[in-house]
C-alpha cells in the first residue's frame, strides 16, 4: 500500500500551493474548546526536500518560513514563526522568545488526497534537579493540507 502512495506522490508534485487548517484546544481534555485556523502553504522544491511560506489566513499577521521533507507517504516540516501578540493569544502563553518553531508531521491520506497529522511547539523549557533534566511544556494540535 505504501508503495502505491509513494508512486502517487511522485506523480503529484509536492511543489505548489496547498490549503489547510490547524487546530488547538484551549480547554481541557474533559471540556475541550477547540479553535480552528486556516492557512496556505506555498511549497518550493520536490519530494526529497522543500522550503516555502506558511501564510496564516486567520491570524493574518504571520507569514512564516517552512522547511521540510516528504518520504514515502510521510511529511515533516518546521514552521518558524516570529513572536507577536496574536500568536501568544492563540497559544495561550506569555511571550518568552523572539520566534517559535512549530513541528508538523503527518501522513498522506490517499482517500482524502490530503496530508494530515499533528503539530507541536515547545512553549517553555525548565531545567530541574542536579542533573539538569529538561521539562518541556508543549502545545499541540491537529492539521491537514490539500493541494489546490
Task: Detail the topology: elements first, then pairings.
Layout (H helix, E strand, L loop, with lengths): L1 H10 L4 E10 L8 E13 L2 E8 L6 E9 L2 E9 L2 H7 L7 E11 L4 E15 L4 E15 L1
Antiparallel strand pairs: 1-2, 1-8, 2-3, 3-4, 4-5, 5-6, 6-7, 7-8
Tally of separate helices:
2
CATH superfamily: Quinohemoprotein amine dehydrogenase alpha subunit, domain 2
CATH topology: Lipocalin
Strand order of the largest sheet: 1-2-3-4-5-6-7-8
Largest sheet: 8 strands, antiparallel, barrel
**Mean pLDDT across all residues, rounded?**
81
Distance between the termini: 24 Å
- The proportion of residues forming helix, as a percent range, comes to 10-25%
How would you classify the helix and strand content by structural class? Answer: mainly beta
Number of distinct beta strands: 8
Q: What is the element string, with H for helices and E for strands?
A: HEEEEEHEEE
Tell me the Rg in angstroms. Answer: 16 Å
CATH class reads Mainly Beta
Write down the overall geometry: globular
How many separate domains?
A: 1
Task: Provide the CATH architecture.
Answer: Beta Barrel
Are there runs of 5+ residues with pLDDT below 50, and where? none
Strand content: over 45%
Q: What can you see in these coordinates?
A:
It is a single chain. This protein is mainly β and 148 residues long. The protein has one domain: Lipocalin (Beta Barrel). The protein is 11% helix and 61% strand. Strands 1-2-3-4-5-6-7-8 form an eight-stranded antiparallel barrel. A hairpin with a 6-residue loop joins strand 3 and strand 4. The longest helix is centred in the N-terminal third of the chain and has 10 residues. The chain is globular and about 50 Å long.
Amino acid at each position: 500500500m505504501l508503495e502505491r502512495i509513494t508512486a502517487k506522490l511522485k506523480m503529484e508534485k509536492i511543489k505548489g500551493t496547498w490549503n489547510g487548517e490547524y487546530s488547538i484546544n484551549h480547554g481541557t481534555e474533559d471540556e475541550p474548546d477547540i479553535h480552528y485556523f486556516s492557512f496556505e502553504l506555498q511549497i518550493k522544491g520536490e519530494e526529497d526536500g522543500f522550503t516555502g511560506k506558511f501564510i496564516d489566513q486567520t491570524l493574518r499577521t504571520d507569514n512564516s518560513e517552512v522547511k521540510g521533507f516528504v518520504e514515502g507517504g510521510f511529511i515533516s516540516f518546521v514552521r518558524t514563526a516570529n513572536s507577536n501578540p496574536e500568536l501568544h493569544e492563540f497559544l495561550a502563553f506569555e511571550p518568552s522568545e523572539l520566534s517559535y518553531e512549530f513541528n508538523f508531521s503527518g501522513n498522506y491520506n490517499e482517500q482524502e488526497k490530503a496530508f494530515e497529522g499533528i503539530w507541536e511547539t515547545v512553549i517553555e523549557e525548565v531545567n530541574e534537579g542536579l542533573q539538569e533534566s529538561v521539562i518541556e511544556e508543549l502545545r499541540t494540535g491537529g492539521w491537514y493540507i490539500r493541494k489546490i
